[in-house]
Amino acid sequence: MAEQDTFDLKIVNAVIVDGTGADRFTGDIGIKDGLITAVHRRGADGAVLDGTAAETIDAAGQVVTPGFVDIHTHYDGQATWDTLLDPSTSHGVTTVVSGNCGVGFAPVRPGAEEWLIGLMEGVEDIPGTALVEGMTWGWETFPEYLDVLEQHRFAADIGVQIAHGAVRAYAMGDRGARNEPATPEDIEAMAAIVKEGVEAGALGFSTSRTVAHRAMGGEPVPGTFATEDELFGLGRAMAAGGRAVFELAPTGSSGEDIVAPHAEVAWMKRLAEEIGMPVSFALLQVMAAPQLWRDLMSESMKALEAGIPLYPQVAGRPFGMLTGFTTRNAFSKRPTFQAVAARYAAGELDDAAFAAELAKPEVRTAILAEDDLPSDPSIPGDQVNLALQRLAGMMYPMAAVPDYEPTPERTVPAIAEARGQDVLAAMYDLMLEDDAQAMLTVPLFNYADGDHEAIREMLTHPASVFGLADGGAHCAMICDASQPTYLLTHWARDRARGEKLPLEFVIKKQTADTAALYGLGDRGVIEEGKRADLNVIDLDNLTLHRPRMVHDLPAGGGRMLQDATGYTATIVAGEVTRRNGADTGARPGRLIRGAR
Q1: What is the DSSP-derived secondary structure letter of residue 463?
Q2: How many structural domains does the chain have?
Q3: Residue 479 sits in which domain range?
Q4: DSSP conformational letter for 136
Q5: Strand, coil or helix: what is 302?
Q6: Which pLDDT belongs to residue 260?
Q7: pLDDT tens-digit series, residues 140-150
Q8: Which GO terms describe its cellular component (predicted)?
Q9: Rounded to whole angstroms, how far apart are CA atoms 237 and 230?
Q10: Domain boundary among 393, 420, 444
Q11: What CA–CA distance (Å, rounded) separates 267 from 35?
């Protein structure tokens, strides 16, 4: 673009981190018709990019990055009623990829909608009542589902993968839902659906092989025990449909089912080699085998060195759950707590009154003394209270600005000992802080060593891609959709217990690299001709706040949100969608169909 041309938007005086991994530089960016049309690197004379603009953002002292591309979300249902796609868009994300882990809502037989909702609720902890009330259906096939999404406008672009669970149930009926073996005819029918889905624009195919993923009735996700014939048949069909990614939660990823993990990587490697498409699998450090991830990462590296596209998908911080009085907790099956919580949920008690009630000595004493009501082991999550009692030794309180790399003396038992309290009494009092809005974190994965060194190795490993943020999922227990912000605040700026990571690296890790995995070559870097998906960030003051429970889903469903301050602007296709942390109402985001 000529220097005197007119822009829709200019960003000037910025410290530009362009997503390629190259060193930052001072410069200006011109945007026209949703694209970056000028990237001006300041010379010795300090001259600013010429040309007028409808709006100019002065980014002096601030960092400008590509918009973040989050490849692991679960907005499949939420996208039919919610155009904001939060919590991801609160953290600089301008592109989301949904349909992960083998669960989704298309294809669907008429009348099977409720079953798919139960599957999603069980696996991803999205309130079924919110899905029932909020979802606007209107499709049967996967291409029809994409047509429905295409009618919506969002605060970020969204791409979707076709999920094994839905495909199996559609093609095989009850036999598929019950994980019965697929016949050659079944595989052929499923393959046709997968190929059709990718041809229509699915960015990939996803499956789950971990027994931790269960429907509300306790049944494993359809496809959990799929044979190699079925997996390879569907992988070949995906590749026949076009450029796409085969994504999975593998056996062993939950820590509950560590059975022949090397064999699991071996078939993934063979599949990636045969179909010539990326295979990406969740990889976490599990407590039961804390060094296993290194072996699997090494096997993946050998594959990449041989030209085989096998990519472990890793997280940027410990992976686990949050607990507090406003969500599931160790006392949630005790009668006195249930009575108080019911009044809170009904609106009879506001936050202050809820806290005051729980702080009453007679209420506290009763809750601590009571036995738990019986749990139903067939209902996923119904025994969380007992699990949280057992997990107190690896539970840490969260400050207003959370520390996700806490030291051992910050565990609940250590605090209890210092206070001369019983462990559960200390847990109760810690959750009672801040008007009973306080949260404790339980790092079940990626924290076996009590620090972030394993995470640092995972993030910096040449074979890894950044993911597992789970935006839209696990509403009552986590808010890992804030990880893009955490990469900046912790890894690039604040880490004190070990080596930090360069800002240029952590930006590339969640922009150019994640976009490249899914073939989204039109975004992820600041370059002329690319989409104008950008963040303007006050990095010095960027702050990630403690998660909080809100009840803003349909039917009053609750979910965790985690606020961030310091995002001056988030820009999607040249339009400012967030300004100083607030939604502007702009909805330039669209459905992505296929690779770019």
Answers
A1: T
A2: 2
A3: 68-251+260-321+447-583
A4: -
A5: helix
A6: 62
A7: 999 999 999 99
A8: cytosol
A9: 11
A10: 444
A11: 41
